[in-house]
Design a protein that fits this description.
By secondary structure, the protein is of the alpha/beta class. The chain has one domain: Ribonuclease Inhibitor (Leucine-rich repeat, LRR (right-handed beta-alpha superhelix)). The chain has a 4-stranded parallel sheet with strand order 1-2-3-4, covered by helices on one side. The longest helix is centred in the last third of the chain and has 11 residues. The two termini are 17 Å apart.
Length: 108
């Protein structure tokens, strides 16, 4: 399956500047041609600290994506992260589990 809407890095940058961003509680960007830089940009954004649900599965760079999310100090309210697909290796999955515990969901 291809990209849902192909938001890519340019779309993530526009999203990061949106005035409504601090009010978002759910963000689902699965299969949207996001590379590791796009996910890292999201993960670094303090404006996303209100998110309860984040789904960036089905995008490129599984290990880098997982590392950026695990290192983010701006996702304290997540109740659901995932699903994380097979693109993330064992160490990346472990880092996500350490950071988010049972809130992260992995695809089979």
């Amino acid at each position: 399956m291809g990209a849902v809407n192909g938001i890519g890095l340019a779309g993530v940058r526009a999203l990061a500047e949106a005035p409504f961003l601090p009010r978002l509680t759910s963000l689902r960007l699965a299969r949207n041609d996001l590379d590791a830089g796009s996910v890292a940009l999201l993960a670094r954004s303090p404006e996303l600290s209100g998110l309860a649900v984040l789904d960036v599965s089905g995008n490129a760079a599984g290990n880098a994506r997982a590392a950026a999310l695990a290192a983010s100090p701006h996702l304290p309210h997540l109740t659901e992260l995932g699903p994380q697909d097979a693109g993330a290796g064992r160490r990346a999955r472990a880092a996500l589990r350490r950071r988010f515990g049972g809130r992260v969901c992995f695809q089979a």
